[in-house]
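Intended use. Records like the one below are meant for learning the mapping from a protein sequence to its folded structure. Do not use them to infer anything beyond what is encoded.
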Amino acid sequence: MDGKKVGVSGLTGYWRLWQRWSGPVQVKEALLLAVKAANYVPTKKSDAYADALYSEYLQFTKQR
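Structure written out for the chain above:
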């Protein structure tokens, strides 16, 4: 976030859960909800987290 690395618990498991989802909005919302359940996400940074998670998700799915 903001040029800094952020650790997120359970990330690989989240990727696998949403590989079957099709739209970027659905994936971003689902990933953010799952991450918020196990990690603190500042409210003001929610959109930035969603974008970063989606970016990492795309990298993960390209490797599969």
